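ERR on first pass: missing label on line 2. Operator R.T. fixed the label and resubmitted. Corrected input:
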Amino acid sequence: MSDHYQLSITVNDTQYQREVDPRLLLSDFLRHELGLTGTHIGCEHGVCGACTVLYDGLPIRSCLMFAVQADGHHILTVESLGNPENLHVIQQAFWDAHGLQCGFCTPGILMTLVPFLENNPHPDEDQIRHAISGNLCRCTGYQHIVDAVKLAAEYMHS
Amino acid sequence: MKKYIGERIKRNEDPRLLTGQALFVDDVDLPGMLYAAFLRSDYAHARLISIDVSEALQRPGVVAVYTAEIMGDEWQPGPANVSPPPTVENITFHSRTQLPLAKGKVRHVGEPIAVVVAESRYIAEDALEDILIEFEPLEVVADIEKALDPEAPLVHDDLDSNLAAYMVQDKGDYQAAKTKADVIIKRRIEIDRGAAAAMENRGIVANWEARSQHLTVWDTTQAPIPIRNGVASRLGLNQTQVRVIAPYIGGGFGPKMMMHYPEEIMIPWLSVKLGRPVKWIEDRRENFFGTTQERSQVHDAEILLSNEGKILGISHKFLHDSGAYDPYGLTIPLNTESHAAGAYDVPNYHSELTVVFTNKMYTSPIRGAGRPQGIFLVERLLDIAARELGIDPLEIRLRNLIPPEAFPYDREIIDQAFALLTFDSGNYKPAIEMAAEKIGYEQFIKEEGPRLRAEGHTVGIGIIPFVETTGVGPYEGARVNIEPSGKVTVATGVGTQGQGHFTSFAQIVAEQLGVPVSDIDLVTGDSADFHWGTGTFASRGAVVAGNAIHASASIVRGKVLKLASKLLNAPEEELELEDGFVRVADLPRLSISLGDLAAEANPLRGAVEPGTEPGLEATAYFGPKSGATAFGVHAMIIEVDQETLMVEIKRYVVVEDCGTVLNPLILDGQVHGGVAMGIGNSYYEQLIFDENAQLLNASFADYLIPTACEIPNIEVAHFVTPSPLNPLGTKGAGEAGAIPVPALFAQALENAFADVGLEILEMPLSPNRLFELLQEKVSQP
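pass 2 clean. output:
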């Protein structure tokens, strides 16, 4: 069997040291080694966007990357945002606007939107639709997601 | 009293889902868990000559490998059909159900042949490569129209042909009507396969605890209770020894209603066999090959009309593709028949259904479930008739709608529940007028359309009414209980896959008990909490489970009033339930909280009256005698890019009548999602098979699910005709959004290309296919 590598990684501001198989996907590492199961796997080939996490602040597909490639880097997952009693402002907007149904694609969409809204505090509808066009959702038809993003932008200004 | 039903209440389940804390099947992690991977056939049809698993067993970390042969006597076909064939005369039905692992031969690409169980998923998948199989490839049945050729290869060797089922249904006298028709229109109409493509793939975790002799199964199923019953039966366990949990499910859309998939038998069996927890999570590629698909049918259809555009009859002789097996019976084609006369009063009807086996993944309902095909058929025929007769498409529809006084309206055929199909209630004309008004139909036809075309835009409009049979039986049940904390717990057996049941069902309880929706905790899909039920399918949750919950909550309300009357010394009529308290209406000081009342109802000592039941709890069931029929109208305006033939939807209007609305926010979301899937079905999504029944686009990179850029804003309006068949007056809505979209796309595209006489007789389309159809028109004017 392959040798394991020493991995040093910061996830949601916590530092982890782990011995990992070099072929272990970052998505599997987060979910099954660290137990951060909020990151979901929808296609394992980088199309659906459900597994999106932030890699040094940028949204990436965690299913397209090996955990060892994140050595020394900083990952943020949906668990970094808020908790049920104290939701992040984007999560609150998704709740208020019914921006989710089954909720499976939602963590990836939220993690796509965190940097998007930081860089685009006043997005118009076309920009919002373009921003989430790399995240597939089968339940909502996207309309309430778009509403939620508009609402989140409003909340962020108030 | 405060109203809860009909309010736009945000969902109880969302905070956990939004923070990644909701449990999905792949999140289940148990000590000592093993991981399974299935070796699936690369051939659509081949004999299995030999299978050598010895190398796989040598690989470090591999615990076990099974094939049908290794399973020995424990290999059994089945379980039986999800839906048995209808009990009507003169029906042919050959039941051939899926196998836990293929034996002797494989019948579709993706059929499981062997399973490896290992210490990690990575090792299990590696070990699949170690298994050596000698195949003898066989001729393939890839095309439903060739399946019944005398020289066609046989999918099931023990049958004389690939005929799976044959059935005729008649209303009136179609042949007699034909002699009186002024206009007869005949067309061949084809609909092809698509995938449901829920974002979460399927998955199962099973944990056999030998010391307690108890099996727990987490399954991405829409039908947790029937899964429990089937697993218990298959493993020779009592039903009480098996607990099935369908936790949060990442979208269902039908294929998770299919049961039992081979994996749903194998994973529990493996856990018992190996005495350890076993997990299997489908990957997306497996989902394209090993999860059910739907829609392929070919119709030779005919419509009879008078010169005034009145429909005299509809007939269709059609082929339905069952795939390699037929576990789901005739549900899909019976739904097609139930919708083949749409929302119209059609006096004469004849259908001749032929179901065939092919070497493709078997089919089972996907959101719409045969209904989109039926609506596509009748609406295509009507559009062609309208052109032939020189009648406006909207006008010809108005002339044929079932009038309000005709309800209950008898179709005189049997439906998917094998009951005579009766439309319980409806008022179609005002709803279609409402949609026409909202989209500006007249104005577009007379002014806007011609003006835009003159400016060089290729624009079109469509408007399609449709019915949806919903809310079929047999039954669902629920238990409602008031806890001493004042919280209300509700348990029901239907599964939930994002429809908002934790909230809409809570609203039904809140309406009866006057408790805030956020204080009502619902458990759905855990057989330990409620173990009777059939599942979430056929747009039946709000109708069947909803009314069972209403019935239970009503009984609890009765118990609350009775006990409070005694304790507060006031007549029941003077009591009101609000904000978690029972109050005497004129004397609000005199009140007791529901929690305290629940504690009073469960004394620890003392004598009670004979016959007293403890607590404030009730269990009740609801079984409708027949389904409730919803109605809706979709209208849209499109612009087609002349170079790319991409379609931009400029406006999309929905008028939906699903009876009493429980939560308009959730309902709008259901409609949006349905429309989005319908748009995929119409212009983006098609499973492409080659002549060897090999699927060529088995990935999300190649199978195009619409993104936020393809789906427009959808304007939803409601029109309410309550169903008389249940106390809440609800009709189903879950599938509605998807049903009329293909028919609407065809109509709007024909309107956009009226100048070249475009005629659309197939779905799905794509820009490429539209280009070909237009080229044909140009080359043969």
